[in-house]
Amino acid sequence: MPTLMPTPGTTGWSTRDIPDQRGRVAVVTGANSGIGLVTARELARRGARVILACRSETRGREAEELIREEVPGARVEFGPLDLADLSSVRGFAAAYPAERLDLLINNAGVMALPYGTTADGFETQFGVNHLGHFALTGLLLPRLLDTPEARVVSVSSGMHAVANIDIRDLNSERRYRRWVAYGRSKSANLLFIHELARRLATAGSDIVAAAAQPGYAATNLQTAGVRLEGRRTAERIVALANRIIAQPAEAGALPTLYAATAPGVRPDSFTGPRIQGWRGPPAPSFRASWTLEDRAGKLLWAESERLTGVRYASLPT
């Protein structure tokens, strides 16, 4: 059964409550559209230097210009990052342009795609949503550890409750069901944060590792899968639902912004929209109990290190 992880002080919280971010540096993956773009824009509005970590240079540059138009004087810059290719992840980390890293927002993701694999042979949803961000966080960890009060925020989903991970079949090789694979990848996001928070605490680090979920927010995420398959009717239905039911990306980004910037956010907390986890201001989010299991977190961590070749040597086991 899901459990509720408390997050204090969320009542009525909005972008007006984001503290001053001047002097801070943030990386936002998938910052070219949707909640990633809103997250990057609002951090820049509060004075942060924001690196837009995007797969497409064209869309990343467009987002860079859009933010500068909306926020004159914004300090934003594009950085090439393809989470479906570990060589790109390593290249991004090697070229990281700042001495500090205050906020790492693991936002980018894919949802309910037809079966496919990443450049390294991983099932696409697990590879992009979990393994790519696991590798990125590990490679950037030295910068995070050198920055006082840094935070790592991973964007999961209420759909994590659809399925627990299967440690024996992380890449869905036995049977692929797109929504089950998506749920597993989002459960992996939460297990990663759970184990990362545990290891950081053991190391005595003040880094806060937390998670967020946007509820039902209107973004390109919902239509990508059906568009890839050429399912025009389904794409129109999803687009209509986005217009009628979903909350805008501006609202969907609030839980992420809260987890990244609000005072008093607890390690391993999970923030989402207040109203049934679908819409509304940030509040504690329901969380499946399996995402809080220490043994599962350790097993997933060990497999993630093995699959990516990225080891968190500076953190105790």
Automatic annotation (TrEMBL):
- List the Gene3D superfamilies hit by this protein, alphabetically: NAD(P)-binding Rossmann-like Domain
The protein's matches in SUPFAM superfamilies, at most eight in alphabetical order, are given as: NAD(P)-binding Rossmann-fold domains
One Pfam match, given by its short name, reads adh_short
Q: Which GO terms describe its molecular function?
A: oxidoreductase activity
Q: Keywords of this protein's UniProt record, alphabetized?
A: Oxidoreductase
Which family would the database say this protein is a member of? Belongs to the short-chain dehydrogenases/reductases (SDR) family.
Report the protein name in the record: Short-chain dehydrogenase
Q: Which organism is it from?
A: Streptomyces scopuliridis RB72
What are the leading ranks of the lineage? Bacteria, Bacillati, Actinomycetota, Actinomycetes, Kitasatosporales
